[in-house]
């Protein structure tokens, strides 16, 4: 049996990011050694991967970062040098995993459709256990529950707004932020907010039942309760409940976040759909959960 090799290629942009990235690589390296069938190699750093090293590996992991911090916000939707690193690794390795560390939306158009890029690990800010977490997910020891908290667009112009760094900014987009903007203008994203892949699959029932809990509230056009933190008090009254079933149809136990969206009549001049509830459920393999 051939011994699998795992390569890691590193890319960093600023001194404040170097420590976190190096720590993650060290932890990733040590964690991977738990699998006695794997041989781990560090194939270069600072955007200069070793081609000879990569060519003998069965899996290659390319790390790219987005620099951000207090007073220095995420200011780029892509980085040409980092994208070139991902493309370079993928050009020599037909099983390339891109680990993308960012604090906001990030375009991936330059390499995401490359047949040799087999997975993208999209993470937030790194910490001292990031390497362990990555290995647990990559080896399938843990079923990742993470979902995108923002939309990944096809192109920069799809967002409909520009990145700005002025001290005073007018939010002319109003309530149509991120996925709400994409819905309003029927723009197809590359990956929608809430997207994420698991090591298993879930099957939702076609049968959804709704029970009205407050008929009087349904007759009102606007909330009429007393003013409170966050708005009128009766904004938070339960008007109806919705039930359905979800089945883990895969091979391992997992958790799923079930989301409820509501559409509005045209006269309301509201969002095409709005998130009105969600619930995380732990589902045993092949079991059916009602929620």
TrEMBL record:
One Gene Ontology term from the biological process aspect of the record: glucan catabolic process
Enzyme class: hydrolase
Any one GO molecular function term: beta-glucosidase activity
Pfam families tied to this protein: Glyco_hydro_3_C
Keywords: Carbohydrate metabolism, Glycosidase, Hydrolase
Boundaries of every Glycoside hydrolase family 3 C-terminal domain copy: 55-178
InterPro entries: Cellulose_deg_GH3, Glyco_hydro_3_C, Glyco_hydro_3_C_sf, Ig-like_fold
EC number(s) given by UniProt: 3.2.1.21
Family membership: Belongs to the glycosyl hydrolase 3 family.
Protein's UniProt name: beta-glucosidase
């Amino acid at each position: 049996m051939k011994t699998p090799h795992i390569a890691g290629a590193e890319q960093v942009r600023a001194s404040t990011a170097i420590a976190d990235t190096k720590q993650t690589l060290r932890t990733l390296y040590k964690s991977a050694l738990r699998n006695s069938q794997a041989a781990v190699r560090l194939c270069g750093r600072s955007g200069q991967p070793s081609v000879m090293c990569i060519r003998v590996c069965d899996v290659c992991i390319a790390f790219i970062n987005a620099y951000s911090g207090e007073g220095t916000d995420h200011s780029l939707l892509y980085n040409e040098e980092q994208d070139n690193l991902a493309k370079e690794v993928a050009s020599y390795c037909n099983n390339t995993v891109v680990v993308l560390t960012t604090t906001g939306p990030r375009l991936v158009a330059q390499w995401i459709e490359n047949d040799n890029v087999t997975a993208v690990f999209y993470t937030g800010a790194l910490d001292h256990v990031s390497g362990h977490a990555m290995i647990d997910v990559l080896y399938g020891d843990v079923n990742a529950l993470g979902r995108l908290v923002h939309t990944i667009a096809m192109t920069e112009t799809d967002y409909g707004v520009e990145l700005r760094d002025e001290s005073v900014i007018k939010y002319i987009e109003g309530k149509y932020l991120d996925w709400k903007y994409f819905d309003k203008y029927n723009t197809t994203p590359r990956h929608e907010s809430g997207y994420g892949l698991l090591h298993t699959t879930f099957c939702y029932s076609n049968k959804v039942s709704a029970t009205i809990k407050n008929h009087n509230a349904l007759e009102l056009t606007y909330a009429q309760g007393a003013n409170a933190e966050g708005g009128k008090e009766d904004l938070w009254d339960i008007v109806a409940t919705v039930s359905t079933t979800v089945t883990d149809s895969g091979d391992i136990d997992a958790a799923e976040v079930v989301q409820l969206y509501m559409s509005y009549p045209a006269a309301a001049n509201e969002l095409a759909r709005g998130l009105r509830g969600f619930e995380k459920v732990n589902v045993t393999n092949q079991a059916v959960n009602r929620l």
